[in-house]
Amino acid sequence: MRKVRYSCAMSLDGYIAGPNGEYDWIVIDPDFDFQALSEQFDTYLLGRKTFEVTGSQAFPASSGIRTYVFSRTLRQSDYENIPIIGENWKEVVRSLREEEGRDIWLFGGGSLFRSLAEEGLVDTVEVAIVPVLLGAGVPLIAEPATRISLELKEHKLYEKTGTVSLIYEFKGPSPEGGSA
After folding, report:
1. Number of C-alpha atoms within 13 angstroms, CB side, residue 136?
2. 179 vs 40, which has greater pLDDT?
3. Which of 42, 68, 71, 124 could form a disulfide with 48 if both were Cys (CB 3.0 to 4.6 A apart)?
């Protein structure tokens, strides 16, 4: 089974994008091999807001990467080459996980992560913590969220930028329940 991996950059105060969706604060450490990371995936999952910020041109069908956008408001008829997933999103993700291929990159954002995580459809949370405080923005996981248990599997400090990479295995909603 392919893994769904939520892999993103986050500010030290917990935001994956600034108040206006900006991500100009994300500094890629020269020792981080973004190409090697990208080659681990053949499918991207995006929420509507992330898709609108990055634009449909950022994920061309010609790249060989399949991109799915999850939205209740976008219309499929407006996007020829990118599937827009609405009502049957759980079934789509379950089906993608069962296919042969590389892992699936849950590219963004916090609302889509919350929905998938609460259904047990996320395998890892991989966060690069960038040493910046944004003060406001798009949180790592949208509220209200169920408490989710994670287990640390890897960590690495990128000394040139001070970025810390953390990889957690998803354990699922906590038995205590409640909100995060």
Report:
1. 2
2. 40
3. 71
